[in-house]
Each structure stands twice: as structure tokens, then as C-alpha cells.
Amino acid sequence: MKKLIALFAVSAMASTSAMSAIALSGTASVSYDDNGSSPSATSYDADLLVTGTAGSTTVTVGADVDGATWSTTSATMATTVGPVTVSADMFDEVSADGKGDTLGANATSTAAASATGTAGEQIFETTDTGVTISLDAPIGDATVGVDNSGNVTITGTWSGITMSHTSKSAGDTTTAAGSIAGMDVSVTNKAGATTWSLGTTVSGVALTLASSQKVTATFGLAGNTMTVSAIPAVTLVAQVDGNSKGSGTGGYGTRVTAAAASYSTVAISRSLTSGATLAATYDTSNDSLTLKASVAF
Q: Is the pLDDT of residue 138 over 80?
């Protein structure tokens, strides 16, 4: 009997040790939208993130759990060997269709494929799993990385400005971000197209301005805020056909983006003593009010 008790104790300790290396987090929310003059609707969302750690190796798996079945949303593994970091993206997310369907399942042509999915989203599916190897180089705290597609990325922070440059066949991408005289600045140049954002606080009001002409102003303190946003009009962007191999000027193609008028939103968020957050958002585009209760753990 003593041996059985000892064996049980060892087993319990091993289980506790294994569980201590696993972290579980997630979010859940329920939203009610009166949809203005359209019928009201209630929606739900619940996501889990499992993180397992063994020494210097970390595995994270994300899942969307509010549907009829669990749906994987991410799966990555990262480990370090001296100054080298190896990261593997093991989840191939569906990027060709907002409903999770690929071209082969629903269409026989580009025109048919563009009938579903999200505006501006690529038409043809691509594989985005891969492995990235990074090296901390003694060049002003720079990190040099290369992935299995041959893309080379150099990142680092100099004089308080964080910069990253990725060289790839589809066009280089360079980003720079930092705080200058109390103003947060971020600039991205992708294949020759530049976008930027500016953020600062004036008399307790947090202001953000983006190159898309979107402006947001946040009032109040953490846990009790009101955010006013002005969203600019959207110009019609024609469909780019592309091809299944992603080669050529069209790449994998993108769906048409319809023109839309400018609108504004006002969102009020309040943290409750129960641990949940209650938010109310008014949208002038369809005169709708959305109430959302959410929790993160």
C-alpha cells in the first residue's frame, strides 16, 4: 500500500509539473446590434490560446471555439539555440475566401472565385506555413532572419527608433516606428507605397491620425473611455485577376473594393467590477447601436 501511495504521489507531482508549463488564456464576447432600420442581431465569439513551454522552446495553439466545432486559428513553435532563433508557422490559414473556401472547392475561374469573400482580399489561395531562422548579430542590436522562401529580414533599434527591412521578390518592405518629442510615429513602405500613422496626447485626449485620413480621439481614463472615430470615404478599387501560381504583375489577385461614403463612430467602454467590459458603439453609416459584453482571461 505504501508503494502505491508513493507511486501516486510521484504521478501527481509529474502531472502538476507538466501543467505548470502550460498556460491557458482566451477571450469571449456577446454583442447585440440593433442594425438601425434593419433587423437586429446577436453574435458571439470565443477564442482560446494554449501556450506550452519546455526550456527555451514555446508552442502556441489558438482556436475559435464558438462554432459547432473547434476551428484552429494559429499554431507556432519557437526555440533558441545560442544566438539563433528558429520559428515555425505550422498553420496554413485560408486567405482566399472569407468563408474558408478555396478556389478549387467553389470556382472554376477567377470571375467565379471573386463572387465570394471579403472586399480587397486575395482571390487565389496561397500556402503561408514556413520556417524562419533569425540570428542576433552584433551590429547595433540588429537581428537578421531568413525564411524558407528566401526572404531576408533585418530588424533593430537605433536611437530609440525600431526599424525593419524585408527583402522579397514581391517587393521590399521597410518599417520604422518610434517616439519623437512625445509623438508616436510609424511609417511603412511596401513595394513603393508608403503608409504612416501619428499618435499623441493633448490635454489628456489621445489622438491618432493615419495616412488613410482616419482620425480617432480617446477621452477618459483606462477602464472608462469614449473613443470618437472619423472614417474616410473609400474609393472604388477594381478587381485584380492574378493567377493561381501568384506569378506575374497580378500576383494572386484581389477582389473588388466597393466605394463607400465616410462615416463616424462613437464607442463608450466601461470596465465592470465583475471582470467583464461593457461597450456601446454608435455607427452613423447605418444608424446602428451595438452593445458588447466581453471578458479576457
A: no
